[in-house]
What does this fold into?
Amino acid sequence: MGWIGWHTFRHSLSAWGKEALKLEETKELLRHSNVQTTSDVYGGLSLEAKRAAQGRLVKFVHRAGRDEQNSSANSD
It folds into this structure.
């Protein structure tokens, strides 16, 4: 097994934080001066988080489409 250093821990904290914390909270724990550093340097979502986000987006689009159809039908 390879050597695990402080930098490895910081990346792990960032990854766990994306799943369990708000970005601002992760920023504070990593002691960054701004959120931009947290999201740029330690950015990138896990595959599971990307799939979850995509699923939420698809549900939103479907719901918006149904709402638009309903409002068009009601205005006829």
